[in-house]
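Incident log, structure service

09:12 report received: a user says their structure output differs between two submissions of the same chain.
09:20 pulled the input from the user's history:
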Amino acid sequence: MPNVAIVTDSVADLPPQVVEELGITVVPLIIRFGGDVYRDRVDINPDQFYSRLKSSKTLPATSVPPPVAYAEAYDKLAERTNEIAVISLTSKLSGTYQVALQAVGLMKKKAHVEVFDTEWVIMAEGFIAIAAARAARGGASLDAVLDAARRSKPRVELYAAFDTLEYLERGGRIGKAQAFLGSLLKVNPIICLKDGEPFPLARERSRAKAIDHLYNLATGFRKVEALAVEYAIDLDEANRLVGRLHSRYPDVPLYISRASPVIGTHTGPGLIAISVLGDK
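09:34 re-ran on a clean worker, output below:
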């Protein structure tokens, strides 16, 4: 068992088998749908969420985990280790990083907890959590685990295509991608994250061209170590993109990930994204 425990949040959208294999603890964010409150992926799964999103006149909202959720996770892990690394989503889009820090003061047991701001979301964040977890499984110290996270942080990229930016705008998470609003709501915008916030990259007139654009971005790296395709509702579309990437990179680990209800709240059901770990 690793000496260092790894904690991340549900926005990393790590596939369940990866969470289990690497022993990562996932703290869920919160979704509020009308008067109902759910823990991300715990009380509501993506199928339930996207079905309700498409039929509901009320749009959901998200919030950070309560500090006690992190504190309880730390205390449980402190029963077997005295070192914990927390890999957090970008602090530019969520207060989760601050909550993870605050929760250290609520612990009932003793452990050394360090919280790392990845400045990423979904599987770009997930790749950093995986790097930290693998370092921990290799027997690395807490400092070395955090160093693995730091070294991975500039080597990940995230590219996402949408059918609308309406959800990002309503949730207040649109950042500089607001340049694509207005008459462009009906085209297929492509964004990335820059310094932890959404940034406009391109726009395409069709969904097929938008996905081609994502593919070209992902295959423009000098070296690729891992890839992830993430989707909201269209698994067939995601699988076709996975097939193209696998043909290009047959020996590279390739993950398929489902956008969690928290992510779907801010992206809508039309999300498809590629995360890359590698060197440009």
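09:41 both user submissions now match this output. Likely a transient worker issue. Closing.
09:42 reviewer note: The CA atoms of residues 83 and 155 lie 25 Å apart. The chain has ten helices and 13 strands.
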